[in-house]
Write a structure and sequence with these properties.
Length: about 110
């Protein structure tokens, strides 16, 4: 009971935005995972790129803020992973990541 009370009243506990901000941000991760089932043609390359930058910036913020927010860091690291997978699906569908066939040069 004492350890729960310590967590409840801690600087990163459920009485603070250090807790509820990351909890709310897990929605981005869940949405990205659900979108993995959709065809890659439906992916917005611009928005996915923005989400990658956003998560990268907030990973740094979560690491630098005092007290360090590991829940936010984990959330944005997960979102970065999901969004990079989505971005690679989009790029492959657009033909950016396709293997180039070497043209036969006559000799």
């Amino acid at each position: 009971m004492a350890s729960f009370r310590a967590f409840l009243n801690s600087p990163v506990g459920p009485k603070t935005t250090h807790f509820w901000g990351p909890v709310a941000n897990w929605g981005f991760v869940i949405a990205g995972l659900v979108d993995m089932q959709k065809p890659p043609e439906m992916i917005s390359g611009n928005m996915t790129g923005v989400m990658c930058v956003y998560s990268g910036l907030f990973m740094r913020f979560a690491w630098m803020v005092q007290p360090r927010n590991y829940l936010l860091l984990a959330c944005h690291a997960s979102n970065e992973t999901v969004q990079l997978c989505q971005l690679s699906r989009w790029a492959r569908a657009q033909g950016y990541l396709s293997e180039k066939k070497e043209e036969a040069s006559p000799q």
